[in-house]
Amino acid sequence: MSSTVLVINSGSSSIKYQLIEPDEGTVVASGLVERIGEGSGHLRHTYRGKDTTLAEPVPDHGAGLRRVLELFAEVGPDLASAGIVAVGHRVVQGGARYSGPVLVDEKVLADIEELIPLGPLHNPANLRGIEVARELLPDVPHVAVFDTAFFSELPDSAATYALDREVATRYRVRRYGAHGTSHQYVSRTAAEVVGRPLAELRQIVLHLGNGASASAVVGGRAVDTSMGMTPLEGLVMGTRTGDIDPAVIFHLHRNAGMGVDEIDDLFNRRSGLKGLAGHNDVREIHRLVAEGDAAARLALDVYSHRLRKYIGAYAAVMGGLDVLTFTAGIGENDDIVRSEALAGLEFLGIELDPERNAGRVKEPKVVSTDSSAVTVLVVPTREEQEIAQQTLSLL
Ligand code: ADP
Q1: Taking the model in full, what pTM does it have?
Q2: N or C: which end of the chain has fewer CB within 10 A?
């Protein structure tokens, strides 16, 4: 039996997990706990193609993870005989401090807690997940893998906001990025797919899920990314604005009487595709577009326009472009978004092949024409597999 790593992604009201054999990337078992602390919890555990589901209250993360471990014992696989060697935890905000995975100890826990002001929506839940997992699985090492690590060495010119230096330094205001595990995995895999050394490629990765981010990667190192101090900056997302004039905040505060928390909620949860067209799921937007809904049409146009702007900007930042890769829920499944985002970019050497681009993509695939100077790919992201591999690499 080869070694396995339990990968845990702990959110504010959910825990997602996968038991992975990192060498092969095989998912042995997976599942999730949802609606933690909400009175009506839901659990799903998948093993050998069979789903076991439970509907019961899950008062807190500790109770949720305890139930998950019971499911491993009852339904399988037994964690000890499955060869578990470590637990890998996704942590969103690692600040400028963590440039790679680390073994969790009291210092690391204190750092994750200390970084909560910079990752208020994610770090508290990530921290809670690590704490309960360490209590319940005390015999294996726990490793934190940070979403920001891949971007921790962004050039200063890309990481720095043009803000008063003293204020920025004191409050650690700079661009940290997010989704780094995905951008790292996808850019490395893209080089394998095109069969060229990572070191010689200028790449753009478009991670388009509910959250969405773009990165510019030269020789395997990130040189720019669209998410900023928090995941709010950049592309249009399911429910987030992405780039917006900061003066909109002052305007809403002064003239609409909105408080900071209300504006935070508006920008993070009630904007993006949802704010523009009423739905954060792009499939619903396409359905509305087909019915002639003007708001849905505009939402897609704004989405694609923003993507094109970032592609052009990153090609300029890198002085050219060799490979452009789509990934995550929308990037992998939505051929309409892929083609609308790249429309009119032939001048950059980007030529999408309509037949290759058609439909959903489950394995890495070239979707550009043979004559396209830029190779356009779809590479399904494997964040959990990457977390498992980075976890194992540390042991
Ligand atoms: P996250 O991990 O950020 O929650 P995902 O990467 O799972 O997001 O992407 C979720 C999004 O992917 C959904 O909001 C939906 O718009 C899109 N999506 C999922 N499946 C499809 C599909 N078959 N066709 C088009 N879009 C899809």
Answers
A1: 0.95
A2: N
